[in-house]
Write a structure and sequence with these properties.
The complex is a heterodimer of chains A (311) and B (188). With 311 residues, chain A is an alpha+beta fold. Chain A has helices at residues 3-21, 26-38, 40-55, 73-90, 228-234, 249-259, 284-295; strands at residues 95-96, 102-105, 111-114, 120-123, 127-133, 138-144, 146-150, 159-163, 166-170, 174-180, 183-190, 192-197, 205-208, 211-216, 220-221, 225-226, 241-248, 263-266, 274-280, 297-302, 305-310. Chain A has three domains: 1-61; 95-231, Sandwich (Jelly Rolls); 240-310, Phage tail protein beta-alpha-beta fold (3-Layer(bab) Sandwich), CATH 3.55.50.30. In chain A, helix 1 packs across helix 3 (40-55) and helix 2 (26-38) crosses helix 3 (40-55). Chain B is 65% helix and 0% strand. Chain B contains nine helices and no strands. Classes of the chains: A alpha+beta (311), B mainly alpha (188). The interface between A and B is large, with 57 and 67 residues.
């Protein structure tokens, strides 16, 4: 439950216990009414707590035990600790990257790779990343596709990503680079990076956390756009998702087509319709059905194509 | 307030015991982090009811409320993963009767209550056993355990909060064996 939800439940439970202790004094009564009037979630949580409290009355049917009877506290502790250990074993499913110096992903696959310096590269669908970790530099060459980097701090060894003519440099930070035909998109999630092109190495721009910039091969970095929510959305692929917020169906289809060999195509009449939502990268058909339903269109599915057309 | 207590009674009798099934149903449809929000919203709406006497089938009603919340969120489209939409229409929960194994037997429910109380921290548990199993008023509990009334009240509040929390957590694991079958119905 969200922090907020827990806090509301706690407050609701406190009110129930006060009411159970005896008649509320007038000012407490007013405070309760005020709290309930404040937010419909308070009323919902209060109702649930009241109901749970009442449900517990049925425990009267349980056999009465002596209150000083020993309890199985130790056993319970052991269980909790066991659970924590299991959780620790399951998490952290990073695998160590073998000696080979290129990471290549086919369409639809995403890989998270721990580099020897402690940095993590999350490589998106249909990408090729070459890695060269040396004494004084860390150079990663993004030949195609997209990758997000969580960079281990090491001031003595700058972390440099090269995507075509575009360069992005970081010390300790997290950012992604997506190679385009005419440049690269750079999105920063933590810290600051510096970016430029080999054409104009002096024309450098600094990009801070929560911002993005497109760096053109010919024109260099364009204006930096601060948009934290947008950056988060654009990186939804790291959890296997596509997040759309008003993108056109045409753009959405292009996104899905990065991850799937079966093409998603849109009738020109619908291309400009805009869409909002979270989708799984590997479920273009689900997206198509949802889009069609919202737009009152139909979906035609064949072996290598999913087509959305007007009814 | 007579009407309010009717609603509380109805929720205790018919809604809370179904929360696990509803959460299980939600789990295959939306992100885990959003389930609490949807359930919370469902209770908000139920709290807004003026009366419950007209609700003949509480199970169908609870599912209907949850389904409406999902649809609204899909339309606002920030919380719910959109694959919900695709199957929404295929669902018709209202005539989907619970199977015998889903009817919570009185026996199972009692065991669950026992378990919830057993899991409380020691002092809290003592207070709950006295208050809820033996029916001793808070004032008397304070005297018997030789603690202040204020402390008893605090234990009751804290214990209830923990019970509310584990109610939603154990409910998550309580997946009905039939989920998934419902989807296939009424698809034409």
């Amino acid at each position: 439950m969200s922090e907020n939800g827990n806090a509301i439940d706690a407050e609701a439970a406190r009110w129930i216990s006060r009411l159970d202790a005896g008649e509320l004094p007038l000012e407490q009564r007013a405070a309760l009414e005020g709290w309930l009037a404040q937010d419909s979630r308070h009323r919902g949580a209060f109702l649930r707590a009241q109901a749970a409290w009442q449900l517990l009355d049925r425990a009267r049917a349980l056999p009465v035990q002596r209150e000083d009877a020993p309890t199985s506290l130790n056993r319970r502790r052991a269980l909790v600790i066991g659970g924590a250990a299991t959780a620790a074993a399951v998490s952290g499913s990073l695998f160590l990257w073998p000696r080979a110096n290129a990471i290549e992903t086919p369409v639809g696959e995403m890989r998270r790779v721990a580099l020897k310096d402690g940095s993590i590269a999350t490589v998106n669908t249909n990408s090729l990343l070459e890695v060269a970790l040396k004494q004084d530099t860390r150079v990663l060459k993004l030949d195609k596709g997209e990758a997000w980097f969580d960079v281990a701090k090491d001031r003595a060894r700058p972390f440099l990503v090269a995507a075509g003519k575009v360069r992005v440099r970081a010390v300790g930070t997290a950012f992604s680079v997506r190679k385009r035909d005419d440049g690269a998109d750079v999105l920063v999630t933590e810290g600051t990076v510096e970016t430029w092109t080999t054409e104009a190495p002096k024309d450098r721009k600094r990009v801070k956390a929560g911002s993005r910039v497109f760096v053109s091969d010919v024109a260099g970095p364009s204006q930096v756009i601060a948009a934290a929510a947008q950056v988060d959305r654009a990186l939804a692929w790291r959890s296997g998702q596509i997040a759309l917020d008003g993108e056109t169906l045409e753009d959405a289809a292009a996104e899905f087509n990065r991850y799937n060999t079966r093409r998603l195509t849109i009738d020109p009449a619908l291309e400009e319709k805009r869409f909002v939502g979270w989708f799984r990268t590997n479920e273009p058909e689900t997206f198509a059905q949802a889009a069609a339903k919202t737009l009152n269109a139909t979906v035609v599915v064949s072996d290598n194509e999913i087509h959305i057309a007007p009814k | 307030m007579a009407e309010r207590s009717d609603i509380v009674h109805w929720v205790a009798r018919h809604i809370l015991p179904l929360e696990g099934e509803v959460r299980g149903w939600l789990r295959s449809r939306i992100l885990p982090a959003d389930i609490d929000d949807v359930v919370q919203e469902a209770y908000c709406r139920i709290a807004g009811l003026k009366q419950v006497a007209h609700i003949a089938d509480s199970r169908a009603y609870f599912f209907q409320v949850v389904r409406n919340i999902l649809l609204e969120q899909v339309r606002r489209a920030h919380i719910v993963r959109i694959d919900v939409v695709a199957e929404m229409d295929a669902l018709n929960i209202s005539d989907d009767r619970p199977s015998p194994e889903q009817e919570v037997s009185a026996h199972r429910e009692l065991k669950r209550l026992q378990h919830l109380i057993d899991e409380l921290p020691e002092r809290c548990r003592q207070v709950f056993v006295l208050r809820k199993i033996e029916g001793v008023p808070q004032k008397e509990i304070a005297r018997r355990l030789n603690i202040t009334e204020h402390t008893v009240e605090a234990h009751v509040g804290r214990g209830l909060q923990m019970i509310l929390k584990s109610w939603s957590q154990t409910a998550q694991q309580d997946i009905s064996p039939r989920q998934g079958h419902e989807r296939k119905r009424k698809r034409d």
